[in-house]
Write a structure and sequence with these properties.
Helices cover 74% and strands 0% of the residues.
Length: 306
C-alpha cells in the first residue's frame, strides 16, 4: 500500500503542474489586468507597479518565478488586496469553508446512505417512490434557487435563523450548511439505492441468506460495504469542491470563504489569488481521490494494491 501511495503521489505531480500551467496562462488571456480601473492610471505609475510585481517580464519568466515561489509554499502577494499575501487570505477564508463543507458533506453522506438504503430495501414501495422523487427534486433544483428560498422562509418569514453573515455565532452557519448538503444528499441517495439493489441480487448475498444469517447482519456486513463503492467514488471530488468553498453559497450568505475570494480574484484579475485557489483545489482533489482508492481496498476485498 505504501509503494502504491508513493507512486500515486509522484504520478500526480505532472497533473498538478499541468493544471497550474493552464490556469496561469489562461487567466492572462482574459481582457483587463490587475491594475485596470475605471480611471486609467498614469503610464509611469502603471509601469512601476508592473515592475514591482514582475509583470513586465516575459510570461515564461513569470511562470518560472511563480513555480519557484510555489515550491517554497509562497503563493505570492495579492495584486488587489495589497496589504495581504495570498497565503494570508487563504488562511483567513479556508477555516470557514472547511468547517461548513465538512459538516455539510457529513450530513449529506449519512442522510443519503440512509435514505438510499431504506429505498433499496423497500423497492417499488410508496416510500421508495417518494424518497427518489424528493431526491430528483434536490438534484434538479440548483443551489442559487434553494438558498434564497431558505432565506425567504426560515430567515425573513419565520425569523428562525439569521439570513447571512457570520455575526450571529453558530446559527449563522445553519442555512449555508443545509443549502450545501441538499444536492449531495440527493445524489448519494440515488447512487446508494441503485448500487444496493444490484448488490442485493448478487450471489454472495443469496449465499449469506441461505446460510441463515440475520437480515441485519447481511445488510451491514455484506451488502452495504459493496453498495457504497459508487458513493465513495462520488465523494472524492465532491468533498474537495465543498470544503474549498461554494461560490454560490458563500456569495449568497456573505461568508468570507475561499469561494468568495475566488470570485473577487477573478473579477479583479487578481492573478495570484485565483492561482492560489486553483492550486489548493487541485491538491485537495488529488489527495481525496487517493483516499478514495484506499477506501476501495477496505470496502472491496477483491481490490489489491500489490
Amino acid at each position: 500500500m505504501l509503494s502504491y501511495t508513493v507512486r500515486r503521489i509522484l504520478g500526480a505531480i505532472p497533473t498538478i503542474l499541468a493544471i497550474i500551467a493552464i490556469a496561469f496562462f489562461m487567466i492572462r488571456l482574459a481582457p483587463g489586468g490587475p491594475f485596470a480601473t475605471d480611471k486609467p492610471l498614469p503610464v509611469e505609475i502603471k509601469r512601476n507597479m508592473e515592475k514591482a510585481y514582475h509583470l513586465d517580464e516575459p510570461l515564461y519568466m513569470q511562470f518560472g518565478r511563480y513555480l519557484g515561489n510555489l515550491a517554497q509554499g509562497d503563493f505570492g502577494p495579492s495584486f488587489r488586496m495589497r496589504d495581504y499575501t495570498v497565503n494570508q487570505l487563504l488562511a483567513q477564508g479556508f477555516p470557514y469553508s472547511l468547517q461548513i463543507g465538512l459538516i455539510a458533506i457529513a450530513i449529506a453522506t449519512f442522510a443519503g446512505i440512509f435514505l438510499g438504503t431504506v429505498a433499496a430495501l423497500n423497492q417499488n414501495s410508496p416510500g421508495d417512490y417518494g424518497t427518489m422523487a424528493i431526491a430528483m427534486i434536490g438534484i434538479t433544483i440548483p443551489n442559487f434557487v434553494v438558498a434564497p428560498l431558505l432565506v425567504l422562509v426560515l430567515a425573513v418569514t419565520w425569523r428562525l435563523l439569521p439570513a447571512g453573515g457570520i455575526t450571529e455565532g453558530w446559527t449563522s452557519f445553519i442555512l449555508p450548511i443545509v443549502a450545501l448538503a441538499l444536492p449531495p444528499t440527493a445524489y448519494i441517495a440515488r447512487l446508494t439505492r441503485a448500487s444496493m439493489i444490484e448488490v442485493l441480487r448478487s450471489n454472495f448475498v443469496r449465499t449469506a441468506r441461505a446460510k441463515g444469517l440475520p437480515e441485519r447482519i447481511t445488510i451491514m456486513r455484506h451488502t452495504l460495504k459493496a453498495g457504497l463503492l459508487p458513493v465513495v467514488s462520488y465523494l472524492g471530488p465532491t468533498t474537495a469542491g465543498i470544503i474549498t468553498g461554494s461560490i454560490v453559497i458563500e456569495q449568497i450568505f456573505g461568508i468570507p470563504g475561499i469561494g468568495r475570494y475566488f470570485i473577487q480574484g477573478a473579477l479583479n484579475r487578481d492573478y495570484t489569488l485565483v492561482m492560489g485557489t486553483v492550486v489548493l483545489i487541485a491538491v485537495l482533489i488529488v489527495l481525496l481521490n487517493l483516499l478514495v482508492d484506499v477506501l476501495y481496498g477496505a470496502l472491496d476485498p477483491r481490490v489489491r494494491y500489490d
